[in-house]
Amino acid sequence: MTTTNPFKPNEYYCSLVKEFCKLSAETEWLEFKSNAAIANDIGEYISALANSSALIGKTKAYIIWGIDNDTHEIAGTTFNYKKEKVGGEELESWLLHLLSPKIDFSFINLAIDNKNIVLLEISAAFRHPVQFKNIEYLRVGSYKKKLKDYPEKERNLWRVFDKTPFEKGIAKNDISEEDIVSLIDYPSYFSLLNSPLPSTRDGIIESLALDALILKNENAKWDITNLGAILLANDFSLFPSIKRKAIRIIQYKGINKIDTIREQVINKGYACSFENIINFIKTVIPSNEVIGSALRKDMPMFPDIAIRELVANALIHQDLYMIGSAPLIEIFSDRIEITNPGKPLVETNRFLDSPPQSRNEALASFMRRIGICEERGSGIDKVIFETAFYQLPAPLFEEKDNYTIAVLFSHKDFSDMDKEERIRACYWHACSQYVTRQPMTNKTLRKRFGIKDLNGAQATRVINGTVDAKLIKKSGIAEARKNAKYVPYWS
């Protein structure tokens, strides 16, 4: 929710109001009012207009105070949204609490013909119908109705949501070419694609449009899509639909969240800031003096490739429709946790072998084109390989509420790992072996943990524990225990 917009000065909104006044009647996405400003009615209208504008393909809806409902003449209003309170709470805040899912809306004060006008700009609903006090509303002509009373319209609305990926939504509409080159980091776009920078602004605009990062609209102006904004925005805060998608990186002093050393919010597009994100993480993670026999003493705590893959996954696979949630990277003294909004699309135990899936295919496709992720899959195989190669504890993948969490741990000797850590490492080792068409054996597991051959019984106990946990099973013809082969439970 915003109340200012530097790329839409009052002149724009004044012109918009005058154009609306020329309409013969109110519409599904437009409501005129004089002074009536009952808080409950405003909430219901926001729900109705947001849902109706989505249904008919509009990106915005409007309520305008100060317009005569019958003649559409500019009459002025005494409504002052800044002074309105509901039970001691400011009107804007009260509305936001009772709308679900959260939706962007903006009150804007205007002066037209020396008369006070208040315009409420409302973003169209996306993914779910907007509710006010747990009730969904809709405009039928110029009337506000409950959505449930119009089942056919409700079904059509859900069809619209099913067909509209987040990337195709509009992050900023009705702007000029000059605004585009100010809002979008176009030099990074051409650099990331290894393409020469066009010599003219027309060439820049044409290239951005070909990738659906911007669209020509019906007003002969331009819209920046959510895809264009989330990849290449110079400043997320200037785009209501993505302003809370900025990546946060927090470094803590110890193993808990009590003492924060530093916090960084990356407020630029994911594509143009990815390398800066990775470099920032690398500068703040500590180094280990010793991490197994494979590493030098000055090696960083976590493999670079593993960090890159998990950060890329968090960006690409997040649920972009979740309001107020963004990827979060937390760095502790013994681990790094990478959290993204949205439940995983496959079971966390199947991350390594499942076919690649993405909620945000347009976002994923562009990230593949610039080499941040690969076409063939999620990169989890690299994460598993890197942690095994450097004899680190196996990564942990968790689903909590509506979030997916990936955790990388700093080095631990086998003797310091607990039973759960050993079983998890054994399972992922079996998965890694299986996808390369190799079975896991006592010998391969000893190598994974750095266990000496004479201590093979230690590996046997881990294997038995992983079998008991029903994460692996014996493969093929029964053999002597030392020669037995094992595969993941799902093979």
At a glance:
With 491 residues, the chain is of the alpha+beta class. The chain has helices at residues 10-21, 39-56, 91-98, 151-163, 177-183, 186-192, 201-210, 226-232, 270-284, 304-317, 361-369, 380-389, 419-435, 442-449, 456-468; strands spanning 30-33, 60-65, 85-86, 89-90, 99-100, 105-112, 115-123, 131-132, 135-140, 143-146, 170-175, 214-216, 222-225, 247-252, 260-266, 328-331, 335-341, 396-400, 403-409, 472-475, 485-488.
Could you characterize what this model shows?
With about 500 residues, the protein is an alpha+beta fold. It has four domains: about 10-165, Methyltransferase, Cobalt-precorrin-4 Transmethylase, Domain 2 (2-Layer Sandwich), CATH 3.30.950; about 170-240, no CATH class; about 245-410, Heat Shock Protein 90 (2-Layer Sandwich), CATH 3.30.565.60; about 415-490, Arc Repressor Mutant, subunit A (Orthogonal Bundle), CATH 1.10.10.10. It has 15 helices and 21 strands.
Beta fraction? 15-25%
CATH hierarchy, class of the largest domain: Alpha Beta
Q: Segments where pLDDT lies below 50 for 5+ residues?
A: 1-8
Instruction: Give helix % range.
Output: 25-40%
List the helices and strands and how they pair.
Elements: H1 10-21, E1 30-33, H2 39-56, E2 60-65, E3 85-86, E4 89-90, H3 91-98, E5 99-100, E6 105-112, E7 115-123, E8 131-132, E9 135-140, E10 143-146, H4 151-163, E11 170-175, H5 177-183, H6 186-192, H7 201-210, E12 214-216, E13 222-225, H8 226-232, E14 247-252, E15 260-266, H9 270-284, H10 304-317, E16 328-331, E17 335-341, H11 361-369, H12 380-389, E18 396-400, E19 403-409, H13 419-435, H14 442-449, H15 456-468, E20 472-475, E21 485-488
Parallel strand pairs: 1-2, 14-16
Antiparallel strand pairs: 2-7, 3-4, 5-8, 6-7, 8-9, 9-10, 11-13, 12-13, 14-15, 16-17, 17-19, 18-19, 20-21
